[in-house]
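Chain A, query sequence.
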Amino acid sequence: MIKFEQPMFRPPSEANSLLVQATIGCSHNSCTYCAMYRESNQKFRIRTEKEIFQIINENSSPTYKKAFIADGNALYMPTKLLLKTIGKIYKSNSNISKVSIYGNVGDILRKKPEELKELALSGLNMVYIGFESGDDITLKRIKKGANKEKTIDAMRKLKEAGIKVSGMVLLGVGGKERSFVHAYETADMLSQGDPDYVGLLSLQVRPGAPIYKSWERGDFELPDKFQILKELEIIAENTNLTNGHFFSNHISNYLPIKAIYPRDKDVTVKKIKDIISKKSEHKLRSEYYRDVINQY
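Chain A, predicted structure.
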């Protein structure tokens, strides 16, 4: 039996999915805010077709309704192998109707449009992307490996192929210095890219991530809770989605929000503004819950 190599990560929404660890680690692994694979010194590699098929055979069950292909940036896989993996998942699990995967901007842009369309036709429904920010200076500082323009292009490329986009934004990642620029630029990026899902998380400065050393030296200053809430307000108010889910319900956030845009936009923005104007601490998540997680 093949054991999953640890650490292995998946989005919270994939908690009940069939997990297929087709790759190990992260193909980029340079983001300064992230310590997910650094502490274990995990090196990125792609499993063989034989290994992947064995994992699917050993873990398949009629109880699964969706599947997630791990690990970090598994979209890096050669398209031919990825197509075989997706096909095997569906063949081995009669009740699965959705397959999702992690991918970064570079991985998406390296795929030809016809490759992405083929993946969509094979049953790849959604790609999770860590946007983090729409501010080019912040993106360069955190070594994201992509800028705002490329991120928008990646979103559009996926949507044109028929693949849904779930993007993650990191509140506070611009630091106090670029806090509001980060927020406005991120809202503009989201509006132009029009993802299907937006998940907002708040930066956790953790040992093991390069940004932690910057924070210790005083080179990076994390915004306080109400400045982070102001970022949330700016993004919520200035983001326009055609029919998108706008969430900030991750445990790292001070204010959990679940909304569908544009339907819930006005109510959502008003809620955030009211809490900020009244400094309603009792309506915010306790620091205790934010501190119990080790990674964003």
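The beta strands are 18-21, 23-24, 45-46, 66-70, 98-102, 124-132, 164-171, 197-202, 244-247, 258-261. The two ends are 30 Å apart (CA to CA).
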